[in-house]
Amino acid sequence: MADAVLRSVTLASAIDLDGFRRACRTLIADAVAPENISWGTQDERDGGLFLDEPMVSAGPRAADAALTVPVPPAFVALCENVVLHRAPDRFGLLYRLLWRLRREPGLRDDPLDPDRVEAERRAQAVRRDMHKMKAFVRFRAVDEVPHGDAPPGAAEAGDGPLHVAWFEPEHHIVEAIAPFFARRFTQMRWAILTPECSVRWDGTQLEFGPPARREDGLPADAGERLWLTYYQSIFNPARLKLATMQREMPQRYWRNLPEAQLIAPLAAGAAQRSTEMIAKGPTRPARRIATAPSAVAVPTEPNQTDPAQERPASLGGLRQALDRCRECPIGAHATQAVPGAGPKRARLMFVGEQPGDQEDLRGLPFVGPAGKLLDRAFAQLGWPRDATYVTNAVKHFKYELRGKRRIHKTPSQQEAAACLHWLESEIELVRPEALVALGATAARQLTGSAVAVLRQRGQWLERGDGRRVLITLHPSALLRIEPELREAAYAAWLDDLHKADALFHPGVATT
Ligand code: URA
What we know:
Layout: E1 7-11, H1 17-29, E2 37-41, H2 42-46, H3 73-82, H4 90-103, H5 114-136, E3 140-142, E4 162-166, H6 174-184, E5 189-193, E6 198-201, E7 206-209, H7 222-234, H8 242-248, H9 251-254, H10 260-280, H11 315-323, H12 330-333, E8 348-352, H13 357-362, H14 369-381, E9 389-392, E10 399-402, E11 405-408, H15 413-430, E12 434-438, H16 440-447, H17 453-456, E13 460-462, E14 468-472, H18 475-479, H19 483-498
Parallel strand pairs: 1-2, 4-5, 8-9, 8-12, 12-14
Antiparallel strand pairs: 3-4, 5-6, 6-7, 10-11, 13-14
Helix pairs in contact: 3-5, 4-5
The structure holds uracil.
């Protein structure tokens, strides 16, 4: 029989999932019905909410420690997210679901049950908030924080500048998401300040601190100014979709994004600029290669005016022409163009997406972490890398500045399309028998249409010129996989690549 006495449960913090689970075990063992429980957290109690209530500790009693309450794994995952939601009744909702799951066998198969729907809606809101935080945190480098002015979480002087970001999450997600930023920005000292708490990473460990204030935000650094210039230059008035921008980047995040200050003025001028663009009439995309006499001559076919017709006659010529390419805005911000590398007559050509940070600095494709993985695969497959031609769909590094770091940004379809003729020139010059598309950008570029890489990986597709293209994942995708799954994913990737083995070891079928 259900206990009719009101129980008050006080959890240690707003995100005390362990405490919640322990309390659930006790309450289920005592058959306390959901309507007889008052849930709260220590913070709320300290704020006076529960001061007059009889408090029954929900901590584990000795006998309860051994109690377990079997629940479907999906419910555990649901709790992990819902507990982070801001709604004060989230613990009550989860406990009610748990209570009902044990009494109503049909509940598992009723996705339209109002409690289930509400819990899913909250879990979704939390996931979305995390996604937004991953996307919209902007660090600013701070060389020195004057004594006494240091924001909560700011480190004392150490190696490299401290990077500070201000963010206002909607839900209690900071602790849950902090490890993501630690993995992503391992080499950097950073602090994220929020109204609820602050978190800092000193290069080795995460530390959580007190809430911060918005005024603790710090002045724009040089990298941020460069990013603003870049944002302004890539802004295309004809493609302005404010509704989409607001959906993807709700306005509550705008005030903390450096580029947001540009949105209103750029948007205000967009209609006028679009009208001017239309009035000017269509233009052919002009390849802006210097024609000064000192420029190295690039042997081309006779039609000099149409970039799509222009074909460098050698890989050397292509390299020189590429470096001056400004057919899309990416080239202006990269250190240099990165052409392919490998023998002129390679039988197999590997095509990635675009150079990364290290490739941009060294002018060579696949020399960074993704390249190391490719090298490892080549070694295991017994393929000499110097017998293959390795290149990219897009020849300049597109990035976004976060503090002083240049973070890879996927090239748009337009940017990739502007670069296509360079790749086609490489294919014409090298004349490989077959190609390997590493990832979706390369697959689209090589086949001319979108390829569902996960579904079609390991398959050979045929290009318009009759060449076969083996579809597989980009090595960077493997580097982003959870560490415990990475080796299995790597083995599956090797299996894909092995389909091209006959090009190195003739006599073996490449199906
Ligand atoms: N990723 C790519 O797609 N290409 C490179 O050259 C490096 C990383």
